[in-house]
Amino acid sequence: VHTKSFHIHIKYYNQTTEWLLSRTRHRPKIAVVCGSGLGLLADGVTNKEIFPYADIPNFPVSTVPGHEGCLVFGILKGKSCVFMQGRFHLYEGYSLCKVTFPVRIFKLLGVETLIVTNASGGLCPDFKVGDIMLIKDHINLPGFAGQHPLCGPNDERFGIRFPCMSDAYSKDLRKLALDISHELDYTNFVREGVYCMVSGPNFETIAEARMLQVLGCDSVDI
Ligand SMILES: O=P(O)(O)O[C@@H]1C[C@H](O)[C@@H](CO)O1
What is the pTM of this model? Predict the structure, then answer.
């Protein structure tokens, strides 16, 4: 991989951030990335301001069905939020720094909490189709092969060079989600587990899925 594809100059992050800040009144502290078919998570938002990705400078565009390709700002339960209706994938041909570009824009917009969602494949034999799995940890398989969004020059504005990953997923937020699933009587389909990223675009072979199970993965996605 050419090292240039590991890096996006800060001027592009600043340009995109300034473009958005000059067009929205919202100053979200919470961002939600909606996976395939999950753009409807933004439906309950009020005071909506919608920006198609194609209009936002430097933003990638969605090429996968089920990904609307819009950034939606608004208010949910009194909190200012931003929703990505559609996310980006390595298999679309984007470098990982392009895939994660919006996350860094969220950081520059002042977002403090990131909620990621997607439609992944279940590996844990106890899971049923349609279950919701809260991610408690992950295995970044492409990362083992040097396909990692943090490779390249480090910009301390976005975080330290060697980030600790032992607490990547907030215990407090996971507990909150579990508490709410109890309150709503959703416990028979809300699970916790280890998520694995693979590159795609093919889904896994039977042998690969079995290997991932042995490695301790409960769900897998591309
Ligand atoms: O963006 P997510 O992970 O929800 O999308 C899944 C995996 C593929 O991108 C796509 C296949 O339908 O859905």
Answer: 0.94
